[in-house]
Amino acid sequence: MGKYLLRRLAINVILVAIAASLAYILAASTMSPRGAYExxxxxxxxxxxxxxxxxxxxNDKTPVLQRYATWVQGVVVGDFGRTWNGxxxxxxxxxxxxxxxxxxxxxxxxxxxxxxxxGAFSAVKQYKLSDRLIGVTSFVIMAIPVFVLATxxxxxxxNLNRGLGFTLIEYTGEYNPRLSGWxxxxxxxxxxxxxxxxxxxxxIAFYSRIQRNMMLDVLDQDFVRTAMAKGLPRRKxxxxxxxxxxxxxxATYFAFAFGTxxxxxxxxxxxxxxxGMGAWLVDSINANDVNSVAAVTFxxxxxxxxxxxxxxLLVAALDxxxxxx
Amino acid sequence: MSILEVKDLTVTFPGGIEAVRGVSYEVERGEVLGIVGESxxxxxxxxxxxxxxxPRNATVSGSVRLHGQELLSMKEDELVxxxxxxxxxxxxxxxxxxxxxxxxxxxxxxxxxxxxxVSKDQxxxxxxxxxxxxxxxxxxxxxxxxxHEFSGGMRQRAMxxxxxxxxxxxxxxxxxxxxxxxxxxxxxxxxxxxxxxxxGAGIVMITHDLGVIAGMADRVLVMYAGRPVEQGLVDDIYxxxxxxxxxxxxxxxxxxxxxxxxLVPIDGNPPSPAALPPGCPFAPRCPMKVDMCDDxxxxxxxxxxxxxxxxxxxxxxxxxxxxxxDVFPVPVIPPSDVVRVPRAERATVLELDGMQKHYxxxxxxxxxxxxxxxxxxxxxxFDVAEGETLALVGESGxxxxxxxxxxxxxxxxQAGRVVVLGKDSAGLDKxxxxxxxADLQIxxxDPMAALDxxxxxxxxxxxxxxxxGRTDARAKVTELLRLVGLAPEHAERYPQQFSGGQRQRIGxxxxxxxEPKLLVLDEPVSALDVSxxxxxxxxxxxxxxxxxxxxxFVAHDLAVVRHLADRVAVMYLGRIAEIGTVENxxxxxxxxxxxxxxxxxxxxxxxxxxxxxxxxLEGDLPSPADPPSGCRFRTRCPKFARLSEAERQRCVNExxxxxxxxxxxxxxxxCHYAEEIEVITASDNQEEQ
Lengths: 325, 689
Fold this sequence. Notes:
The structure holds 2 protein chains of 2 kinds. Chain A is mostly helical. Chain A contains 12 helices and no strands. In chain A, helix 5 packs across helix 7 (181-219). By secondary structure, chain B is of the alpha/beta class. Chain B has 4 domains: 2-217, 3-Layer(aba) Sandwich (Rossmann fold), CATH 3.40.50.300; 233-327, no CATH class; 338-562 and 572-578, 3-Layer(aba) Sandwich (Rossmann fold); 585-688, no CATH class. Chain B contains 25 helices and 24 strands. Chain B has an 8-stranded mixed β-sheet with strand order 6-7-8-3-9-10-12-11, with helices on both faces. In chain B, helix 4 packs across helix 6. Chains A and B meet through helix 1, helix 8 and helix 9 of A and helix 2 and helix 3 of B.
């Protein structure tokens, strides 16, 4: 097992290196951080710009491969370089990963849990009114792009707050920096409500459809009948034997969603003004910030591979049939 | 007093489909009631209705009383206290009947804890005891295994252990051994008898296998089209059937102790529960039908002595003492011209010489590496002469199917030779291989899966003709349909409009389209009901004689083989254990495996089953990836167990090859200590004499 894991790790390192290198070379050869310094009033001397860009390893006059070599030397020791205006990419990334984690963790877990529960319920009630209702709602939600949904939620809350005359639900930012202690914690939770809803609605809809199908496959299986023939009440047989078995395929989806959640919520972060990883990707592309783009891509590649690894572990944990004997 | 009393039970599914139409029976303590019937006769639905486990859209009426307490009107939370405690059920397919993600021990312990207030540890210990009771070796260790790590027979034992966990009063067994090989079936039936002795429970045994019922049941209920048509003591049903359906059923089963010659088929097919004929549902297939049969469905009337028969002519049958052979016309099959020539002078159509097929055993999900070899077929030799049927028999995993595939591939085997019609498969080029395929055709096991559901039957049969560039397809299709007993207008229909037996006839017609010389039959009748099976077997026999065909016939049912084959080769773990003419092998088997196999087959004869001496094999088939040294059968061999230490050495060290037995021309066995004995009819009494 240890040998297998090591080999797996080695492959993943190679894959991450390829993904990040391609992203760096693409960004470095098409983006021009120089633009941010040119055309300033008063104009900055070209030699000064060159010197600044050289210091940040962003000078387009240096050949791409040479810049790439410098970048690699940094990355190998864990230094992702400088942003276009000299900040540390490492610091920025560390801060933003935490922001994304705080924003997305609850939404992702909630989306999975509620989605699976609704899907299983819907399968048990197949073709009943509740099943059809859940089905139609899921498809409606899945058909609405997340930026429309998030914007609608924000507008609705704005109107609600205005109607009430005070701010019941926050709809922008992460927290109110003027508060402290317990108040700040509650304020943070309040700020989480809307983004969490906007994030989890989509995944609830998605998981409920998947879980419904998985559950339907399992419901007619003989082992559910055996469980009931043993004397288990129907509900218990369904949860313990049917749902437990039907969870295995959904776990794969969940592992991937969990791994990619950090960079997957660009719209939600932008609309609710949270400065996380997703928002950073868009911001850094707009700012021609080569090193930041490369860092985000690097991080995303790591996440995807970690997710695939996580999904294998999860499936092995849930399904004794795939465990290596 | 009866444990279970079922009265006028009916089950209706949405769309007015009456799956069960008035079933009544009683089961007493310690009694075994056998329920027989073909697929769709409503026997499984009846038992699920008793358990209250039917889908919720089914409507159940009538009465089911357990110890006098009505179950049908019982609330769900009361019913769960009965299920698994007073009534337990054993299902057909033990792989799908266990939840794949929990260990066997946990699942049995769960059954204990549902009904008994015991701690987790106590329940786990009880599970190990139960596994021990049903004869699972190393029960403490095996309790921690998952269902997929058990073999089929072991799973069914575990299923029985789970069913008796709470000492039930009634066990319902729904086709408990249908998915198992005969030697394993014999073991499991033995375990069931043990379980019954331990619990004193009544058993309802549902099966289509009249042999199993003959050995197990005290009373029998025969079902047809959702209704019981005959009920009585097992001897009465088997020796004095009074309903034409029962008579036909008993006459149509091939018997391993039977005579050669045509079987007695029942014409037609069982009616669909959605479209029952007026009057007696069996009337359209009944040779004794009179006009009155169509007027009204005959009720199940008492006949005295606990017998009930639903037939208006039952008294007449009783009076005249008719049997199935009197009632059902015995078909006449013209004899073959080819067999008049002695076998040695006939041409050889297929010859295998030391053929091998090994598969690499791979491991790993991303990087596959070879960790061993599966010795699927490990050097087998036999030949098939013109106009002859050679049957390849053996349990699942013995290499029968691999052998077929290797022959059909018409390529050079890994070792040894395959010679088809005098041509060595190693020396064929592409065009020679294609033209040889016309002479070598196959009929598959599952007639539904083998026919393209989106192609009309005419196109299916014409396809091989077109593939080989024949232009006269249309006329030939008509001829072929007639040949297999279908009508020419059937060419326009699709496979799903036919019954299983008719579909197999279509498969045979397709195989015959190119007028092959050798037909390979891969379990051609094992997916069919007995009454249908007889017709297909007769058809195959007739075609062979009329067209001068040769058959290579693969089967696990030794009774069917006895009827259809001239010679038989018994395979075990990729090797041939015994080979010879059917008479020699069946009447005086010399290899201990053949002896065990033949003695494990249940006979549809209660008297013989009661006195029969069985050779029970220990354990399961070893893995073909790791066969035992020397003789592959020695780990399970009853003879090996009786040998002295010095004699055993030979079995351990030296692999036996097929050696001709001294006194007869065509009989050989691969055993160092071969000894011919009679096993099929062997009884305890004979042993004493």
